[in-house]
Design brief:
This protein is 21% helix and 31% strand. The protein is an alpha+beta fold and 289 residues long. The protein has two domains: 4-76, no CATH class; 93-287, no CATH class. Strands 12-7-8-9-14-5-2-16 form an eight-stranded antiparallel β-sheet, with no helix packed on it. Strand 8 and strand 9 (204-211) form a beta hairpin. The longest helix has 14 residues, at 43-56. The radius of gyration is 19 Å and the shape is globular.
Length: 289
């Protein structure tokens, strides 16, 4: 007899069904519901939720600092044990800010980059018409997808300063490869934040763009003590001057999603950074000039 797990795997393997199950749903309403449900602190709710999660994903909690969690949300945003993510401390190394899978990598050309083969989008659609894009022209972009079972916190890619944050309210399309091949300019539609930074002794300008997704539309930034979400009513652009060290935690997603990394043309990709590469936070992503 086919088990529920085998049935789910069979359905998930069909791109049409996967897309319908994860996108043709009331995304915003379901995301708000999950935000509430995941924070219920009841052992029955927690244990049942974690059991279901484990049945659908490769959830490995052996690296987690805690052995017991108060809620499903507490497990989503879990911290790791000290030392399980070694930081490459070489001064010229720009590290991966998160665990994840490289979904796309390349240079920004004529203000354009891509989310999947044949699906380009423009910087001004992602970051707003008021941004100056000369800095990013011919520079690097790396899209890192964080799956639901991965570690969901993101960290500073180098010593530096957070200069400015822009918040964009938006939709909550799934950001898995199936959706990225079907929804044009998906990252430009979803909720996201633009984190402008200066790193290294020469204050190179770089940026991280955390992009939210279905069930995930909340982004926590420690520097602002702010939770960006559908309920956020504060300023959409915030100037700040928050210093950080390489590897220091910057914030987290409530579940899993995507971070797009931008760096100037003078940076170089580290060896082996290609589409499909599995990254761990702290590993070399690029080299500073």
């Amino acid at each position: 007899m086919m088990t529920i797990q085998h049935l789910f795997n069979k359905l998930g393997a069909n791109e049409n069904i996967n897309f319908l199950l994860t996108n043709r749903i009331p995304r915003l309403a379901l995301t708000r519901f999950m935000g509430w449900f995941s924070q219920i602190r009841h052992p029955w709710v927690r244990d049942a939720s974690l059991a279901i999660w484990r049945s659908f994903a490769d959830l490995d909690l052996s690296e987690a600092k805690k052995s017991q969690f108060e809620s499903l949300h507490d497990c989503f945003i879990r911290e790791l044990k000290t030392g399980v993510r070694p930081i490459d401390t070489h001064p010229n190394v720009f590290i991966s800010p998160c665990d994840g899978i490289v979904g796309a990598v390349g240079r920004v050309e004529a203000g354009q980059l891509y989310q999947a083969k044949g699906f380009p989008y423009r910087l001004d659609e992602l970051l707003g018409q008021d941004e100056s894009y000369a800095l990013w022209e011919n520079g690097w972009f790396v899209t890192i997808r964080i799956t639901s079972s991965m570690y969901h916190r993101f960290h500073a890619p180098h010593d530096g300063t957070l200069k400015r944050v822009k918040y964009f309210s938006g939709d909550t399309w799934n950001v898995n490869p199936i959706a990225l091949k079907r929804i044009e300019k998906l990252f430009c539609k979803n909720e996201r934040a633009f984190l402008e930074m200066a790193v290294g002794e020469q204050a190179h300008k770089v940026a991280l763009v955390p992009v939210a997704a279905v069930l995930v539309a909340s982004i926590r930034l420690h520097a602002l003590d702010t939770l960006f979400s559908a309920a956020y009513t504060g300023p959409l652009e915030i100037t700040c001057h928050s210093s950080f060290q390489k590897g220091e935690e910057l914030g987290w997603f409530q579940h899993g999603s995507t971070i797009i990394v931008f760096a100037p043309p003078s940076f170089q990709l580290s060896a082996g950074i290609v589409e499909g590469k599995l990254l761990k936070m702290g590993e070399a992503l690029m080299q500073l000039p």
